[in-house]
Design brief:
The chain is mainly alpha-helical. The chain has five helices and two strands, in the order αββαααα. Helices cover about 60% and strands about 10% of the residues.
Length: about 140
Amino acid sequence: MTSLRPNIILLKQGTDSSQGIPQIISNINACEVIADIVRTTLGPRGMDKLIHSENREPTITNDGATVMSLLNISHPAAKLMSDISKAQDAEVGDGTTSVVLLAAELLKEAKMFLEEGLPPRALLKGYRKALELALSRLAP
């Protein structure tokens, strides 16, 4: 039995409701921008970043967690990069830049396959299989 009620989707005015591969690639691009911001903070020769905000003193840091926490990210997919950075900081206390860069590289590779026509589900299946294989090799 089919419902006769129309689908109602409530979005804020100005919200983009695009879908499909182009939207996935757009999300990946947003995540790559965030990774590019913190990329140069990595390692012993990591560069400092000067972050200026209207309501606080300027901050100079080369700590990826600090940079990520001070960014005002509005893109939903890019916010995930901030979330994984915060989760890494809370769980381990270090490696926040590395986890953002690792995620960005996985997304960069995924983008290449998506642009070549690989279905997103096949890509996810491959990533899950790779995860299982890596975990089986790392397990004692």
